[in-house]
Amino acid sequence: MGAAEHSNRQTRNCAATPENIAAAATALRAGQLVAFPTETVYGLGADATNGAAVAGIYQAKGRPSFNPLIAHVADAEAAFQEGVFSDAAKRLANTFWPGPLTLVVPLNPHSKISDLARAGLDSIGLRVPSHPVAHALLKAVARPIAAPSANRSGHVSPTTASHVAEDLATRIDMILDGGACDVGVESTILSCLDDTPRILRPGGISRAQIEAVLGHALPEEDGQTPGEAIVAPGMLASHYAPKAKLRLNARDLRPRETGLDFGMSFGGMAARDLSPTGDLAEAAANLFTFLRAMDSEGHATIAIAPIPQDGLGEAINDRLSRAAAPR
Length: 327
Ligand code: TXA
Ligand code: MG
Fold this sequence. Notes:
binds threonylcarbamoyladenylate; about 325 residues; binds magnesium ion; DHBP synthase; about 15% strand
């Protein structure tokens, strides 16, 4: 899959009228990619329950690694369907939503959010944006929408529709133009995975505002191990780690190994194939789901066929080598 394949979409630039918001909702439900304004920055949205659609986000951004994505929903009730909220998390949600706060909470077992949108984690980042266009869109879609900032990987986050077009024209299906974003910096990301909430990324809601609601101070460190370079916010906290040993770039299957194939290179001997036809987007959509399923079957070693290092292959290989790293 070459670079050209990521830039063959016809990008419709649309004013955020009620008709176009309805069309954007239909497009999202059909698995298309739609950029939309939030109060912080423009997001690049895809149906979070559709792994193939989410793979398209990574292709469009040219992101060389999978990060867990924030799932955007219309209201707190919808968020409570996707995550498990402690009393403190509920208090924060009820105070700051809609608004620029993302809460990372344990995944609700009933959630239908794809493994790829969560980068294989058991947690989920949820946010209810306050921008009226985002709200109307999410209400109409009635599904969680995974949306990173709508920029090419390594570029700054876009705060106008024309920033989005500069980065993503021909790579996504639609841009909803709702004018300039008010806040201009991303949402604050707060982990509520254990008893002490922690800021993973500072943003639109301040530490002091959060502490006032919690009634106590937040820990100083921002979710990073001291002294370790920040690769990307949330990355270190969010490393997917299977119990099984992974043997990467396996050309064959050894005794007692179970195989995770790509493009049928193990000649039909593997337990699963990420994409029998060698489609990297399909492989990305299956990656965490298959690893998780094979891990739960209790295999000691999973042999993984070579994945080409182009397009989404780079992100797949990045995640595989992290998952294979000795612990
Ligand atoms: O304001 C915003 O938050 C914007 C708008 C579009 O909503 N979105 C945004 O998304 O900035 P993005 O993908 O550029 O940054 C999301 C960050 C990532 O660094 C990711 O690591 C972290 O959120 N994140 C998401 N889910 C997480 C999880 N379950 N655990 C840890 N970190 C998580
Ligand atoms: Mg970003």
